[in-house]
Amino acid sequence: MLAATALIIVQGVLLSSAIRPEFIPSTQPLSGFPTALGQWNLQEEGLVDADTQRILNADDVLNRLYTDGSTSVNLFVAAFRSQRNGKAPHSPKNCLPGSGWAPVRSDEYNVAMGAGSSITVNRYVVAYGETQSLVMYWYQSRDRAVASEYKAKFWVVADAMRLNRTDTALIRVIVPIVDRDDEAATKTAVRFVQTFFPALRAHLPT
């Protein structure tokens, strides 16, 4: 009886959140994201073609190359104001192999953010022939950075029930791996994430 009662309550909450108008938070356009981030400066503004945009189905996209003078790093952000109409981030683990990149290994990695805080991201090594790249990515919803796709979906449901909102963003960083030294690429990615993360938070809803 308790389980049946709990199920009825959950169904009622889900139905209520589905029929009431969703809260869509205001956001700053990603086009206004800083071109200078500490020692990192904009190298190239990447384009997202119409076919890719249609597949992504994101409300706003940022695709840029930044450089510190010695290394170029790609920053990609796909922001979704709502996921109620079939919109959802596409995992790089699905998209990159479709572009010809073969997965080599993957794990989760903690990035220290200062003041004793950290975020957990996915660390993913991919190869295209002899070329290798290190990919870091995560899902950012409000003040929450989540690596796991399953946990991200859980929090979407939780936020829809509690806050009547489903906005999120996929954040992806790609660093070329030189001489098979993926630890050096990891250190570069971490340094870049630590630098741009405060500006990213300012451009996404809290």
Summary?
With 206 residues, the protein is an alpha+beta fold. 33% of the residues lie in helices and 36% in strands. The chain contains five helices and nine strands.
Task: Provide a descriptive summary of the structure in words.
Helix content is 33%, strand content 36%. It has 206 residues and is of the alpha+beta class. It has one domain (2-203). Strands 1, 2, 3, 4, 5, 6, 7, 8 and 9 form a nine-stranded antiparallel beta sheet that branches. The chain is globular.
Write the layout of secondary structure elements.
Layout: H1 2-19, E1 36-37, E2 40-45, H2 50-56, E3 60-67, E4 72-80, H3 92-98, E5 102-114, E6 117-128, E7 131-141, E8 144-146, H4 149-163, E9 168-177, H5 182-203
Antiparallel strand pairs: 1-2, 2-3, 3-4, 4-9, 5-6, 6-7, 7-8, 7-9
Q: Fraction of residues in helices?
A: 25-40%
User: What is the ordering of alpha helices and beta strands?
Assistant: HEEHEEHEEEEHEH
What's the helix count? 5
Task: Find the count of extended strands (DSSP E, 2+ residues).
Answer: 9
- Mean pLDDT, rounded to whole units? 86
Integer-rounded radius of gyration: 18 Å
Alpha-beta classification: alpha+beta
Described by strand count, sense and barrel closure, the largest sheet is: 9 strands, antiparallel
Compute the number of structural domains.
1
Low-confidence stretches: 9-13
Strand content: 35-45%
| Terminus-to-terminus distance | 39 Å
Shape: globular
